[in-house]
Amino acid sequence: MTNHSTMDLEEGSDFLPNFNQDGLLPVIVIDHQTNQVLMFAYTNAEALHLTLSTKQAHFYSRSRKKIWQKGEQSGNVQLVKQVYVDCDQDTLIFAVEQIGQAACHTGRRSCFYRVLEYEPNNPTQTRLKIIDNHKFFDPQEVYSQPKE
């Protein structure tokens, strides 16, 4: 947590990103025209700076421990049209123009292509139902590593 006042964070005009203890901010990515949720990722100070200076979405991969630009391998880049900041400046929304049809590494338009089905009287019995199975590309082809 930063040492800024609640008033500064919630009502001030200064951008005071409130990174978590790992130096990250969650980012929800939406289509700037339809508001469809495309994906969720994290950014850090460097990736956020790259995003703001290039207008292309950059994120921080927790698993790979590195910054990545959306579409650097697939070509499905995201041009950032607007950045929304939540009330305490610890979450962002990137409203983007999705270049290429797929935002998800699975080849689908959105990373949110499944819904949870469950019975309210028995919530432990859950299933995932695919609601969008259309793939714009084959992830095995796009993300395969060259063999030596």
Task: Give an overview of the whole structure.
- The chain has 148 residues and is mainly beta.
- The chain has one domain: Roll (Ubiquitin-like (UB roll)), CATH 3.10.20.
- It contains three helices and eight strands; from the N terminus they run αββαββββββα.
- The strands form three sheets. It has a four-stranded mixed beta sheet, with helices on one face. Strands 3-4 form a two-stranded antiparallel sheet. Strands 7-8 form a two-stranded antiparallel sheet.
- A hairpin with a 4-residue loop joins β3 and β4.
Question: Can you summarize this structure?
Answer:
The chain is mostly beta strands and 148 residues long. The chain has a single domain (1-148), classed as Ubiquitin-like (UB roll), CATH 3.10.20.810.
